Amino acid sequence: MRAPMDPKAAATAVSDYGWVSVRAAPEGLFGVRNDAPGVWRLLPDGARQLVTDRISPDRPEDWAIHQGRVFSLKRTRKGEGDVFVTPLAGGASRLIGHITRVSEEPGLAVDLKTGQPVFPRIVTEDSDIGLMTLERGG
Fold this sequence. Notes:
Blueprint: E1 19-25, E2 28-33, E3 39-42, E4 48-52, E5 63-66, E6 69-77, E7 80-87, E8 94-100, E9 109-110, E10 117-122, E11 129-133
């Protein structure tokens, strides 16, 4: 729903039902559906356009948008995953890193200063979970 700035005005639907995770960016609104994989651009007429199919509906929080790109965490095996980047303007997804010891907790963000993905990672096997960034090896 789109809520107006005027509290007396009614909210209006932005799109159809079935969205479980939505992000706003300068390029528009984007979301993940509960019935189909992917990150979708929500168009002004209510239609939707697939940006990348890398996100599973059962992991709707494993993505972020930053500077015209979608960052996505595709979990490959228990405790492991691949991080991809996809241009919002179109084009192929590119693998930017493989990570291990990924927490089962959902989530992926991008550091606004560095542009690096940030994700929850298991630091020790008992209960410590730390936030990690993905950095290029030297």
